[in-house]
Write a structure and sequence with these properties.
By secondary structure, this protein is of the alpha+beta class. The chain folds into two domains: about 170 residues, no CATH class; about 50 residues, no CATH class. A four-stranded antiparallel β-sheet has the order 1-2-3-4. The two termini are about 35 Å apart.
Length: about 260
């Protein structure tokens, strides 16, 4: 991603009305710098146009299911969870498959283009779309699901608060969290994890711990000066509320600088 594209991402996500599709596509520009964002937005427009004739049926959930699952073939697959492409909107539009949250982004964008009331609902380990009070599961072909069924499947006692609509910044943050998680552990990709952290730091009200994470990644990449500066910045931010974490970060910063001597 170029500095200009990151500026565009920051400007969008910090605006009063951030564009979800644009934010997700600009995430994809980290992987494909010459990504044709306009073409992907046009693809969403085309999906909405294809679903528009179904509006006469007067059943919003059925409109989305028919247009996106039955006709366009969007759905999830179990082997996508470790695939970075499943977290990139342009790839999801191309492959017609992705993680629950990215499939939900497609459903949301098409619903909004059709003037349908829709909101994203983030649950522990899953993501749904609320269409006028009806829950759809894009990962499973847009099928209707109840709260009881969802609680049973996730093995969690969910409350009304769990079904509150998510804001665009919250959805984007979770997309980036998925990218970070996929780039951690066996076969980890530090560069991927780094850009995901750096984009998450551009989202308003981001977690201060991202600074610590960025510093730790930079140490692993051998950028010891930048790592120390980031860890010191993190320590300054958290010292009033968590002196122990601040002290740990400062010690890590000193160790990072020591590697240069």
């Amino acid at each position: 991603m170029s500095a200009e594209t990151r500026r565009r991402f920051a400007e969008n996500i910090r605006s009063g009305a951030p564009d979800l599709a644009l934010a997700c596509l600009l995430i994809g520009a980290e992987v494909l710098p010459d990504l044709d964002v306009a073409a992907s937005l046009a693809a969403l427009d085309a999906l909405a146009d294809a679903g528009r004739p179904h509006l006469a049926a007067g059943d919003p959930p059925a409109v989305l299911r028919r247009a996106l699952a039955d006709e366009a073939g969007f759905r999830g697959y179990g082997d996508d969870y470790g695939d970075l492409r499943a977290s990139l909107l342009h790839e999801v539009l191309r492959r017609r498959r992705g993680l629950p949250i990215l499939l939900s982004v497609v459903y949301l964008e098409v619903a909004w283009r059709l003037g349908l009331p829709a909101a994203g609902v983030g649950l522990p380990g899953h993501f749904l779309v609320d269409v006028g009070g009806t829950l759809l599961d894009p990962f499973y072909g847009g099928r209707l699901v109840s709260r009881a069924e969802t609680s049973a499947r996730l093995g969690a006692a969910l409350t009304d608060a769990d079904y509150e609509p998510w804001s665009v910044p919250a959805i984007v943050t979770r997309v980036l969290t998925n990218v970070r998680a996929g780039a951690t552990g066996h076969g980890k990709n530090l560069r991927t994890r780094l850009w995901a952290v750096e984009l998450a730091m551009l989202v308003p009200s981001h977690d201060a711990a991202l600074r610590r994470e960025r510093g730790e990644i930079l140490i692993q990449l051998g950028d010891y000066v930048a790592a120390a500066a980031e860890l010191e910045s993190y320590a300054e931010a958290v010292e009033p509320v968590d002196p122990e974490a601040a002290d740990h970060a400062l010690r890590a910063a000193r160790m990072s600088r020591a590697r240069l001597s």
